[in-house]
Amino acid sequence: MKKVIVTLSVIVAGLSVTALDINAQTTSSQSRLQQDREKWQQEMAEFRARSAERHEIDKLTDSIAGVQAAAAVQNKDFVLEADQVTFKSGATVFVNSTTNFISVKGNRAVVQISPSNFAAGPNGVGGVTVDGSISGMTTTVDKKGGKTVTFNVNGIGISAMIQIYMSPGSNSATATIYPNFNSNTVWIDGDIVPYENSNVFEGNSL
Fold it and tell me: Which of 168, 159, 197 is nearest to 80 (CA)?
């Protein structure tokens, strides 16, 4: 009988130790899980803070670029550097902004469309370059703050009306080129920068 009691005592003691060990392991696992959760929450908070900071920096950068673009347009001293050209057919081409642009310097404007990277074209850089004198420039502002600048350009190779829409709060812009003697309208999208800050390359004019 004593042997049975001793055996039961050993078994109970063993079960107690096992239960304590399991409880310890469970507590340790829960602790690690809690630590992992807190670490994840901290990392997410830091990520959101960095994202918010980058967003504010981007907004400030866009705002400064927008102010510079507006001043440059007002002074008739700007370049719309295009990264996308859309033709009347609906075809859209992503282009090099250094060779696709509309520039305005005083009363002179240059329109260069060079969608090809494989053929030199009349201007030597894959397209056409035309320049002429500006007349009739007007500016209107819509209720959302978007600005539309309209002017005519006339020269040896061009007779067209150009309309530039500037997005509010940034230097992003879309220009529509309406030729006076045909319906080959062209749209270009890009950014407006002050003339002196532009890196465009002007090809040979017609």
Answer: 197
Task: Specify the CATH number of the domain 1-206.
Answer: 2.40.128.410
Cβ neighbours of 110 (radius 10 Å): 21
Question: For the segment 25-37, what is each residue's pLDDT rounded down to a tens digit?
Answer: 666 777 888 887 8
> Do 56 and 178 touch, CB atoms closer than 8 A?
no
User: What is the model's pTM?
Assistant: 0.73
Question: Residue 42: which H helix or E strand, with range?
Answer: helix 2-74
Report whether 70 contacts 147 (CB < 8 A).
yes
Spans of all domains in the chain? 1-206
Tokens 């510079």 correspond to 68
Residues β-bridged to residue 93: 85
Q: pLDDT tens digits for 1-17?
A: 545 454 545 444 554 54
What are 121's two structure tokens?
């074209």
Residues lower than pLDDT 70 in the chain:
1-27, 49, 51-62
Strand 92-94 with 101-105, pairing:
unpaired
The b-or-e profile of 46-67 (16+ CB within 10 A means b, else e) is: eeeeeeeeeeeeeeeeeeebbe
C-alpha 35/C-alpha 54 separation (Å) is 28
3-class SS of residue 173: strand
Phi then psi for 191, rounded to 5 degrees?
Answer: -120, 145
